[in-house]
């Protein structure tokens, strides 16, 4: 006769629903809130936004997210001290932090959150495109804690670049090279620049359209492309350090040395410089393209190139990124991925795609 032993069950607390914390209420953060509200209104199940934060304040999420966003954006400047979100209630395991800042401080928190079981979704490239140690700490923390790192907004504003590289690696392919136009703002600028309007005027337009970094020097110095190339090559399995990427900067000395607040002051110094490069390229039947290249054997470079007008890298339009990947299976004919690679709306959409993929897993 068998005995059925009733085991007394220890009562498990009901799992708490995941919440969202949005850090950053600039162009991308605001577009995130607008898209979030649209998706919710259409019936998409999304975690509640518990906090909206920026460098100045933290506002509790309410049903009226647009009002919470307005309140956060209107908060007065603050000087020194911990960021407001670091002083309040912490997210708990299972929550999702969305990083729509360009902040080193916030990027430094990525490994810490992941280690605590908090998922991170980011447009901020500094987490995996900056210091190699931090990028490795992010990967280790996510693996050990089982938390997720949504990074599709960091390169190509959500184009299927990182996921394609990872799929190739998982399928046993070694990546040979990754080359392309990786800056949406510079693609747009060099596509528009025909000598009829000063480069500085176009730059201000790109800035107003939300294509550039908060500090456009990050684009013009090639730093943004260096970060993206590092993110891509690291995702392809190569432990590349920033100093291994040879970068040609477009920055003239004046704006390079200016305070961030005065950064608009010297853009006119770019005009003559780039007009001369443009005229020389046109005279040779070429087009200016700002290109990043990672080669598994020959290293990495970033810089402005004058390419034959029919060159495959010149085929994009507007803010298009165009990336050419060679791997074991794509040895002779590469995989080519092209599409809009900058802009607050596509970037916010990429962030929400990552949130949805984590929330609905
Ligand atoms: N604009 C685009 O096309 C794309 C942008 N990105 C990335 O998105 C991020 C945001 O870009 P934007 O919205 O244009 O910048 P933005 O300058 O308009 O906004 C940045 C926000 O971050 C906040 N912030 C700064 N330090 C903070 C801190 N310590 N704690 C909390 N909040 C802090 C600021 O208060 C501000 O609200 C950047 O990392 C950028 O590289 C990524 C892909 C495409
Ligand atoms: N400033 C960046 C924005 C997206 O990453 C770019 O120009 O591509």
Automatic annotation (TrEMBL):
One of its GO terms (molecular function) is NADP binding. Its cofactor is a metal cation. NADPH binds at residues 101, 125. Residues 24-148 form the Aspartate/homoserine dehydrogenase NAD-binding domain. L-homoserine binds at residue 213. Residues 160-356 form the Homoserine dehydrogenase catalytic domain. The keyword NADP applies. Belongs to the homoserine dehydrogenase family. This is Homoserine dehydrogenase. It comes from Luteimonas deserti. The lineage of its organism: Bacteria, Pseudomonadati, Pseudomonadota, Gammaproteobacteria, Lysobacterales.
């Amino acid at each position: 006769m068998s005995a059925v032993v009733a085991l007394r069950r220890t009562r498990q607390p009901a799992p708490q629903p995941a919440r969202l914390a949005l850090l950053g209420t600039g162009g991308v953060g605001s577009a995130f809130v607008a898209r979030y509200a649209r998706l919710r209104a259409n019936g998409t199940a999304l975690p509640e936004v518990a906090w909206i934060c920026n460098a100045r304040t933290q506002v509790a999420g309410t049903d009226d997210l647009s009002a919470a966003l307005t309140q956060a954006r209107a908060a007065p400047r603050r000087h020194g001290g911990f960021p407001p979100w670091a002083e309040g209630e912490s997210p708990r395991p299972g929550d999702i932090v969305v990083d729509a800042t360009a902040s080193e401080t916030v990027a430094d928190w990525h490994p810490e959150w992941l280690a605590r079981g908090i998922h991170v979704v980011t447009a901020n490239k500094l987490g995996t495109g900056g210091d190699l140690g931090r990028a490795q700490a992010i990967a280790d923390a996510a693996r050990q804690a089982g938390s997720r790192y949504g990074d599709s907004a960091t390169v190509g504003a959500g184009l299927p670049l990182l996921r394609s590289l990872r799929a190739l690696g998982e399928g046993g392919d070694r990546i040979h090279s990754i080359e392309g136009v990786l800056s949406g703002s510079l693609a747009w600028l060099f596509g528009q620049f025909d000598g009829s309007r000063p480069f500085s005027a176009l730059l201000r337009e790109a800035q107003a359209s939300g294509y550039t970094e908060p500090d456009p020097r990050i684009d013009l110095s090639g730093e943004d492309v260096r970060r993206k190339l590092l993110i891509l090559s690291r995702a392809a399995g190569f432990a590349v350090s920033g100093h291994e990427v040879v970068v040609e900067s477009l920055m003239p000395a004046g704006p390079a040395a200016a305070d961030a607040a005065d950064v608009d002051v010297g853009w006119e110094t770019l005009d003559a410089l780039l007009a001369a490069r443009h005229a020389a390229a046109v005279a040779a039947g070429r087009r200016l393209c700002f290109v990043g290249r990672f080669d598994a054997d020959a290293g990495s470079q970033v810089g402005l190139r004058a390419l034959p007008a029919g060159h495959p890298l010149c085929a994009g339009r507007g803010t298009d990124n165009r990336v050419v990947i060679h791997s074991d299976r794509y040895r002779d004919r590469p995989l080519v991925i092209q599409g809009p690679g900058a802009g607050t709306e596509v970037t916010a959409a990429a962030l929400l795609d990552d949130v949805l993929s984590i929330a609905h897993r």
